[in-house]
Structures are given as structure tokens and as C-alpha cells.
Design a protein that fits this description.
With about 400 residues, the chain is of the alpha/beta class. The chain has helices at about 5-30, 70-105, 115-150, 160-175, 175-185, 190-200, 225-230, 260-280, 295-305, 310-330, 345-365, 375-395, 400-405; strands at about 30-40, 45-50, 50-55, 65, 210-215, 235-245, 250-255, 290-295, 330-335. A hairpin with a 2-residue loop joins strand 6 and strand 7 (about 250-255). Helix 3 runs antiparallel to helix 4. The protein is elongated. The protein starts with 6 loop residues before the first helix and ends in an 8-residue tail after the last helix. Pfam families: 7tm_1, RNase_H. One of its GO terms (molecular function) is nucleic acid binding. It is found in: Membrane.
């Protein structure tokens, strides 16, 4: 999910944030003073706000009195601006994110049990957002309590040493929030955790790695999102994979045009790798085959027994091939998800191969008549519905504030 904020609005927002921050902190510059207290053996220096206006009435000796109404008002506003309002804003923004996650469906081929994988990812995002909000509240709450206590207390006498200690710890905890947030973001990232384990020697890098990647190719007519044209020319796909073995890179690709779909190409890309493994003569050198794919659906079908409507024969063939390799050669075959287009060299090579195969499939399709599949009709209908929804969303008079952050249902 991406926030689509135009560049000009972002610049204005940054300027407003800086102006607002300077305005809020300006009283601290105007009323902050350095004080000295001369003792017999040393000079004590400290900084404090100088809101004094005279002597406190009813005391035997003149005592510095604070202009409490102005000071109390200022620190109360600071508490609202820097603590209460951010919490309210975070709750509102996070509720919008959660609502979008739960209402928007991930486009692609519909499966019977793919909801469990999607729900797992959604729950992970929700847990992270709740964790960030909780940490922010816990870190800043003690400091706000200490400030408000010092301003609203009825006893005008100087507070004891316990307050200085509590105030110091509260400030330290509040400022540590900026250091904790990156740890939270990184802790929820699987690649970061693997990197930490690898640095500590707890993560064993596989000796044999295969990276599978798929891509789809649509003709110019097909991308016009015309329902009639889509019915005439269904999409074509290409499968590509890059295998790294014995310091060699083997490029594999195959066009997919018969009842072509994205999922079919994803399965074919994985099958290309397994077919190559089965053709290797000396398999004793291989302990583990690790296949990286950007398709959680394909991985779920092969490892979690997800049910699908189409391409059952292909998935069953791959599962049988996996069992055969494991049984006869004792090779471990594991799958791992990797994000697509993440500047990973193996992904980029496999992506190029998949596009080349897709172009070949498109050329073959032009020379042959192919029956329109049920999935092609579903895809055309989904594109048409999304197009109509986007048109209404762009021209609606309501929800304009949210529109600045979420202008499209894609991405």
C-alpha cells in the first residue's frame, strides 16, 4: 500500500511542520534563563523558565513566584500538541490503514484457502501498528505526567530529589522512542531477522539455491481493458528461473500460452527448477534445494495444500516431482517468499527471462486460436469494475481528505 501525495503538497506540509515546530518552541527561547547560585565551595548552574512577576504573598520572605496561568496554559497546550493529538492522529490513520487492508482484496486467481495467508499478513501489519502506538504512549506518558504535576500541584515549595530523578528518567524514556521505532520496523522484517541471525552465526546459508520468478505479458490490445478484446485475445505469460549451482548460473525459461494465467506461469517457473534438479547426474553434491518465489499463492499450493480450481494437474505434477526427489535422493526442498522487483540480481535475471518467454508466448498466440478461459472472463470483469470504481472515486465530492493519501486501489 502506497501513499500517493503529490510533490507540491509534500513541500507545503514540510514547511508548515517546521513553522509550527518553531512556533511551539519559541516560548522556551524567550523565557529560558541561566541561573547561578554561589555556594561556599562551588557555583551551581541550572536552566529554568523565567515567568516570574514578583513576590509570593503571605510568606515571611520574598520568594520568586511563577506566572502560573501563562506557564500552566503553555505546558498544557504542549501536552495536547505533542502527546494527545499525535495519539488521536495515529489512531485515526491506523484505523484507516486497517480498514483498507480488510476491505481491499488482493487481486489474482481466487483460491479456497488463500485467505489464511492474506489474513496472516494483515494481522502482522495490525500487530505492528498497535505495537508502535503502544510504545509511543508508554514512552511519552511519564514525561507528560511529570510536567503537568509540576504545573498543577498546589504546594508552592520546591519539590524533592525524587522528582528530579523521575523527570530525568521520564525524559530519557521519551527521547528513546525515536531509537526504538527503527528496531520495531526492522524486527517485523523477515530479511532483517535473517541478517541478524546470519551475523550471529545462527542462520546457515544453503549450498544450493534456485530463484524462481514469473512475469506476465499482455498485448497492446489486451491492456486496453476492453471486455470484448479481452474475450478475443486472452493474456499470455512467461516463466523464468535462474539456477545457481557450483558457481555457475543456469538460465531457464518457458512460454505459457495454453490456458495461460499468472498462477500457471508461477507453477511452471518452479517446475523448471525441479526438472533441472532431476536431470543432474551427480545429485550427491546437493543437500538442499531452496527455491525463492515472489508468489505466495504458488508456495501455499505446494506446501500448505491450498485448493485451486484450475491447473490442478500442473500442481500435482510438481508435488509428485518434489516427493520423488526427496525420496530417492534425500534432497531437502524448501520454498521461501521473496519480494519482486527488490533490486535482487537473481530476481532481475529471472524477470528478464520471464519477459522473453512471455513475448514468445504472445507471438505463438498470434499464430494460433486459443479458447477463452473462465479466468480470463473473471480478469476482464475485475478490470472493468476497478475502472468504474476509480472513476467514481476520482470525481466524488466526499472523502477528499482520505483521497490525498489513497488515490487508487492499486499498488
Amino acid at each position: 500500500m502506497k501513499a500517493h501525495i503529490i510533490e507540491r503538497s509534500a513541500k507545503y506540509s514540510l514547511i508548515m511542520i517546521w513553522v509550527f515546530s518553531i512556533t511551539v518552541a519559541l516560548p522556551m527561547v524567550l523565557f529560558r534563563r541561566l541561573y547561578e547560585r554561589h555556594w561556599k565551595d562551588h557555583v551551581e548552574l541550572w536552566c529554568d523558565d523565567d515567568w516570574s512577576i514578583g513576590a509570593l504573598q503571605g510568606t515571611p520572605e520574598p520568594t520568586i513566584a511563577f506566572h502560573r496561568p501563562a506557564r500552566m496554559t503553555y505546558y498544557t497546550i504542549i501536552c495536547l500538541i505533542l502527546f494527545i493529538f499525535p495519539i488521536v492522529a495515529m489512531i485515526g490513520a491506523y484505523c484507516g490503514i486497517i480498514r483498507t487492508l480488510w476491505l481491499n482484496e488482493i487481486p489474482g486467481e481466487r483460491l479456497t484457502h488463500d485467505v489464511s495467508g492474506q489474513m496472516k499478513m494483515k494481522r502482522k501489519v495490525v500487530i505492528m501498528l498497535i505495537f508502535i502506538l503502544t510504545v509511543f504512549s508508554v514512552c511519552w506518558f511519564p514525561l507528560q505526567i511529570s510536567i503537568l504535576y509540576s504545573e498543577y500541584r498546589s504546594d508552592p515549595k520546591m519539590m524533592g530529589k525524587w522528582y528530579d530523578t523521575f523527570y530525568f528518567l521520564a525524559r530519557t524514556l521519551a527521547f528513546s522512542n525515536s531509537a526504538i521505532n527503527p528496531i520495531i520496523y526492522a524486527g517485523f522484517n523477515e530479511n532483517f531477522r535473517k541478517g541478524i541471525k546470519s551475523m550471529c552465526g545462527c542462520y546457515k546459508k544453503p549450498r544450493w539455491t534456485a530463484i524462481a520468478r514469473i512475469d506476465s505479458f499482455r498485448s497492446t490490445t489486451l491492456t486496453a481493458t476492453s471486455k470484448t478484446v479481452l474475450a478475443i485475445q486472452p493474456r499470455t505469460c512467461g516463466a523464468g528461473a535462474i539456477v545457481i549451482f557450483n558457481n555457475k548460473e543456469i538460465e531457464l525459461k518457458q512460454p505459457s500460452f495454453k490456458r495461460g494465467s499468472i498462477l500457471l506461469a508461477e507453477l511452471v517457473a518452479i517446475k523448471l527448477v525441479l526438472d533441472y534438479v532431476s536431470r543432474i547426474e551427480n545429485k550427491t553434491l546437493i543437500e538442499e534445494v531452496k527455491i525463492f518465489s515472489d508468489s505466495q499463492t504458488a508456495i501455499g499450493i505446494l506446501t500448505l495444500n491450498w485448493k485451486i480450481e484450475n491447473h490442478r494437474s500442473t500442481s500435482h505434477e510438481i508435488i509428485s516431482l518434489i516427493k520423488s526427489i526427496q525420496k530417492h535422493h534425500g534432497i531437502r526442498i524448501n520454498f521461501d517468499w521473496t519480494p519482486g522487483h527488490a533490486d535482487v540480481r537473481g530476481n532481475e535475471i529471472a524477470d528478464k527471462l520471464a519477459k522473453e518467454a512471455a513475448k514468445e508466448a504472445n507471438q505463438i498466440q498470434k499464430e494460433a486460436h486459443i479458447t477463452v478461459t473462465k479466468q480470463d472472463i473473471k480478469t476482464a470483469a475485475r478490470i472493468l469494475v476497478n475502472k468504474k470504481w476509480q472513476h467514481r472515486w476520482d470525481n466524488s465530492d466526499t472523502g477528499r481528505f482520505y483521497y490525498n493519501f489513497h488515490q487508487t486501489d492499486k499498488g
